[in-house]
Write a structure and sequence with these properties.
Layout: E1 3-6, H1 16-20, E2 26-28, E3 34-36, H2 47-51, E4 57-60, H3 63-69
Antiparallel strand pairs: 1-4, 2-3
């Protein structure tokens, strides 16, 4: 399964990552910080990571997803 990490110290709670996630993996908590609500739905598309203006989100792809997309190890 792909893993999404959100660094709250860098996050400004803009909601861009939530808006761009096509599979509704992310959602805002009570403080408006993004949280990973449905990790099993993450396809590793990286839209959340690429759109984050604060570099506060990182997607780690599992081995199967990396092979399908041709991504280097670890990303």
């Amino acid at each position: 399964m792909n893993r999404v990490e959100i660094y709250q110290g860098w996050c400004k709670k803009c909601g861009i990552c939530i808006a761009f996630c096509p599979h509704k993996v992310l959602e805002a908590d009570d403080s408006d910080y993004p949280i990973v609500k449905n990790p099993e739905k993450c396809t590793g598309c990286l839209l959340c990571e690429m759109r984050c203006p604060d570099f506060a989100i990182v997607v780690y792809k599992d081995e199967e997803t990396r092979q399908e997309t041709g991504s280097p190890a670890g990303k």
